[in-house]
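Dear support,

I submitted the protein below through the web form. The confirmation email said the job was done, but the results page showed an empty box. After a refresh the structure appeared. I'm attaching both so you can tell me whether what I see now is the final result or a partial one.
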Amino acid sequence: MAKETLAEENVRGTTCLVIIAHPDDAEFTVAGTVARWVKDGARVVYVVCTDGSRGSNEPDKPPEVMKPLRHKEQQAAARVLGVQEVIFLDYEDGSLEPSMELRRDLTRLIRRYRPDVVICQDPSGLFRGNSYVNHPDHRAAGEAALYAIFPSACTRFVFREMLAEGLEPHKVREIYLYGSEQPDTWVDISETISLKVEALKAHRSQVKPDYADARLQSWNGELGRRHGVAYAEEFKRVVLS
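What the results page shows now:
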């Protein structure tokens, strides 16, 4: 059975980088954990890989309208959770690839912010159950994040131009992969589920308030019942030696 990790661990002073593909990805998946860590004294920084510009099929909401709107929504959601900073890489929504360019950008941020923990998507899953095809942007962001963590960020002469920028190698201590088919860690978010719901509601172009409330109450409630608490989130946890 997956084990809870934060009950016995002090995260005060920890820096966490949350790497996601789109605005709202974190609010759907890990925002309860983010809010709990912030409350417990961690510094959390979001990195959003795409510009979110193709987040609507409405004719009157083309990419040039959606991009600034989704930036604004993500910033609002981050304020709800207490996230200290949001970085937008602004790759084109819908066509993200785990390119060397993206890996370089993420490596630079890891070396700059020097996180103890990185949260990102498990890139290995093509499907979620029998009703969802995993978005290719999700997988691309997850893969690039993992390879930025290792080997790029911790190896001196990978992207050696960063040395001239004063960005020395940095080794991330732990990775929390969300969306994993084989989670081994869970976090009790019973005290922060309301913040997660409120943060998701900030993405007004993507979700209706009633949907956000019902979806997260059901989804995280089901995970909570699995572990004997009201609400939970699950991860695959990688502790790097």
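Response: this is the final, complete result; the empty box was a page-load delay. Residues 63-81 form the longest helix (19 residues).
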